[in-house]
């Protein structure tokens, strides 16, 4: 701002320069014009220097901003820049490179980790229930693939909502119970689903299903 004021003052002063006087009017006018020209040239010189400095500073600021933006993009693509921190409830909170909290679904997508692996050492009851349901779902899927009808019937007897389900529908059922883990809903929605649905399984009930307990509800065909 001081440089701008100085240049402005130089131009303003040029208007008031009288220059050397002479008894010859033409000489006086010529001298005054020369003096004004010198002041204006000085002002223009200062203005050009200031403009160059300001342009240089603007270019440097743009370059710094560009580098910062590129670094942020690079950080966003680097799984190592993401954090998992344990919370007071025994579960985890997840953060991006900027320190912004994100969902576990985003964390899983960036890191390439499975939800089951991310949560395997969680002490949160909801996470532990998910781990159990996920394992039981896999067991059910294997039983369906292998044509193990007794195991399938036992699962269905303990989880009536799975009656008629196909292998490709099992993951959909799991997502419905734990929407927040898959970015399909809020944590509160998952809490409301607690204790309902899912993939409960008591291996001791297998004998009852084998001896004709529940019957029906699924066929490998």
What does this structure look like?
The protein is rod-shaped and about 105 Å long. The chain is mainly alpha-helical and 221 residues long. It is built from nine helices and three strands. It is 59% helix and 5% strand. It has three domains: 56 residues; 41 residues, no CATH class; 98 residues. The C terminus is likely disordered. Strand 1 and strand 2 form a beta hairpin. The longest helix has 52 residues. A three-stranded antiparallel sheet has the order 1-2-3.
Major beta sheet, specifics?
A: 3 strands, antiparallel
Number of strands: 3
Radius of gyration: 38 Å
* Biggest sheet, spatial arrangement of strands: 1-2-3
Low-confidence stretches: 209-221
Give the averaged pLDDT, no decimals.
79
Which word captures the global form? rod-shaped
Strand residue percentage: under 5%
Straight-line N-to-C gap: 84 Å
Output the structural class: mainly alpha
Overall structural domain count: 3
Sequence of secondary-structure elements: HHEEEHHHHHHH
Helix content: 55-70%
Number of helical regions: 9
Topology:
Layout: H1 2-15, H2 25-76, E1 83-86, E2 92-95, E3 101-102, H3 104-111, H4 115-118, H5 125-146, H6 149-158, H7 170-177, H8 187-193, H9 206-210
Antiparallel strand pairs: 1-2, 2-3
Helix pairs in contact: 1-2
């Amino acid at each position: 701002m001081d440089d701008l004021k100085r240049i402005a003052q130089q131009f303003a002063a040029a208007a008031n320069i009288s220059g050397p006087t002479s008894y010859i009017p033409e000489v006086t006018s010529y001298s005054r014009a020369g003096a004004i020209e010198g002041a204006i040239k000085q002002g223009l010189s200062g203005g050009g220097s200031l403009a160059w400095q300001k342009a240089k500073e603007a270019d440097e600021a743009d370059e710094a901003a560009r580098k910062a933006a590129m670094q942020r993009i690079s950080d966003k693509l680097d799984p190592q820049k993401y954090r998992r921190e344990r919370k007071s409830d025994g579960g985890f909170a997840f953060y991006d490179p900027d320190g912004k909290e994100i969902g576990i679904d985003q964390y899983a997508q960036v890191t390439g980790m499975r939800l089951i692996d991310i949560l395997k050492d969680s002490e949160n009851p909801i996470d532990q229930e998910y781990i159990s349901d996920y394992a039981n779902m896999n067991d059910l899927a294997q039983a369906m693939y292998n044509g193990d009808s007794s195991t399938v019937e036992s699962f269905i007897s303990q989880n009536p909502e799975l009656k008629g389900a196909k292998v490709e529908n099992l993951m959909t059922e799991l997502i419905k119970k734990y929407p927040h883990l898959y970015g399909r809903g809020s944590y509160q929605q998952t809490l409301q689903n607690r204790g309902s649905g899912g993939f409960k399984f008591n291996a001791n009930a297998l004998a009852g299903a084998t001896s004709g307990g529940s019957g029906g509800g699924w066929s490998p065909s």
